[in-house]
Design goal:
With 390 residues, this protein is an alpha+beta fold. The chain folds into three domains: 82 residues, no CATH class; 105 residues, Butyryl-CoA Dehydrogenase, subunit A, domain 2 (Beta Barrel); 138 residues, Butyryl-CoA Dehydrogenase, subunit A, domain 3, CATH 1.20.140.10. The chain has a four-stranded antiparallel β-sheet with strand order 2-3-7-6, with no helix packed on it. The chain has a three-stranded mixed β-sheet with strand order 1-4-5. A two-stranded antiparallel sheet has the order 8-9. It binds flavin-adenine dinucleotide.
């Protein structure tokens, strides 16, 4: 199942040492806190700090910003080794979406203030892009920041900001020039998520994950918290979305689940025969395994491009498009295999595999929406990838 891209001794050593650490430190409770997005409980917070102390969370970043050197392949190893164990890299928004953009475009002061704390596992960010009437078309966002001397004063509303109830900082995109062309009047800020004037209210989702509406009422944000240049925020946001699409879906995350389903078919009978002998079940399993391998090959290819210094451009969209739909098909195949009781969860009696597939089937609904819907990604692939007219 594992197409190992790692070629250098240093990368292999990193994978091994990280694996040993994770096998010792990752508990079921920490994995549960990661996957249920419960705001990171005490155990997961402590684990993040412990990982931060090893320097591995900042792997791939320069040492002066709290990193421990290494390559982009080390970053890939980091997400893969967590996914293989059904956990998530702690503070993943800060580490893989905001941090890389800050590293490329942030002021020296901003990099020194935030990157070491991200690499140390100390702080998490929440993405503040979507508004009630601005989702896919982010360039239409209306929330405003008004220049007021040393600060900007920000008012308006964001919605579906998933980590805001526990994040330390808001990675906020707002309009700073209402008269400029739509894409050129947006700026990105780092805002204290608990600043005076911010109200956060929950939105519960089908998948059990909490997301939030976030309201700003004349929130004062110092100019030092502007990311990069004024009015370039849309382009930085696009860059962060590229990282998000690349890092979010590690197909290896499904392998343990596939293995549990296979084991289940070997001990469970239906109609007088074991499920594993049923041609219908076998076809489903073969399809699931094939699609995981295809997604893994696509992930390896994307990282091979990066390693060779090539731009990713539409490749991250392609990966997210396939990976997200693949996870939904995986859940559908699994439900077909398990039969009607596969939909039972929450320890209902008779739920196969402890209700994990029923839960998965609800959690993957968001996959083809968040980080860019499949319809939008198909347009990106068609235009940027295939050169079709806009
Ligand atoms: C659980 C959850 C968590 C989220 N977390 C975050 C977060 O942390 N931070 C954040 O900023 N946002 C977050 N989002 C928001 C998410 O990114 C948006 O929901 C997504 O971008 C779609 O925007 P929308 O909901 O406004 O739908 P719309 O943009 O209104 O789209 C509605 C439908 O129309 C289709 N559509 C729209 N435009 C086109 C077009 N040009 N061509 C073809 N089809 C089109 C879409 O594909 C979709 O099917 C989250 C959303 C959810 C549901």
């Amino acid at each position: 199942m594992d197409f190992n891209l790692t070629t250098t001794d240093a990368e292999r050593k990193f994978r091994f040492e990280l694996g040993v650490f994770l096998d010792q430190e990752l508990t079921t409770e920490i994995c549960r806190q990661h996957s249920m997005d419960l705001g990171l409980g005490k155990e997961a917070r402590e684990f993040a700090l412990k990982l931060g102390k090893t320097g591995w969370l900042g792997r791939g970043w320069p040492e002066r910003y709290g990193g421990s050197g290494g390559t982009v392949i080390d970053e890939y190893i980091l997400v893969q080794e967590f996914a293989r164990r059904e956990a998530f890299v702690p503070n993943i928004v800060a580490r893989f979406m905001c941090g890389p953009v800050m590293l490329r475009h942030g002021s020296e002061d901003m990099k020194s203030e935030f990157l070491p704390r991200i690499a140390g596992g100390e702080i998490e960010f929440s993405l503040g892009y979507t508004e009630p009437s601005s989702g896919s078309d982010l360039a239409s966002m209306r929330m405003r920041a008004v220049d007021d001397g040393d600060s900007f004063v920000i008012s308006g509303q964001k919605t579906f900001n998933t980590q805001s109830h526990f994040a330390d900082y808001h990675w906020l995109a707002v309009r700073t020039d209402p008269d400029a062309p739509r894409h050129r009047g947006i700026s990105l800020f780092v805002v204290d998520q608990r600043a005076t004037g911010i109200t956060i209210s929950p939105i519960d989702t089908l998948g059990g994950e909490r997301t939030n509406e976030v309201f700003y009422d004349e929130v004062r944000v110092p100019k030092t918290r502007l990311v990069g240049e004024l009015n370039k925020g849309f382009y930085y946001m696009a860059e962060a979305l590229g990282y998000e699409r690349l890092m979010l879906f590690q197909s290896i995350r499904l392998v343990p689940s596939l293995n549990r389903i296979i084991a289940h078919t070997k001990v469970t009978s239906r109609g007088g025969d074991l499920l594993c002998n049923n041609p219908y079940v076998r076809r489903h399993l073969a399809q699931m395994a094939t699609e995981i391998k295809v997604a893994q090959a696509m992930e390896d290819r994307a990282f091979a491009l990066l390693k060779n210094g090539k731009p990713l451009d539409h490749e991250a969209s392609l990966l997210k498009l396939f990976g997200s739909a693949m996870r939904q098909r995986f859940a559908d195949h699994a439900l077909d295999i398990l039969g009607p009781t596969g939909r039972l969860e929450n320890n209902a009696s008779g739920d196969p595999l402890g209700g994990e597939i029923a839960k998965l089937a609800k959690m993957v609904v968001i996959d083809t929406i968040g980080g860019g819907t499949s319809e939008i990604l198909k347009t990106v692939v068609a235009t940027r990838g295939m050169g079709l007219p806009r």
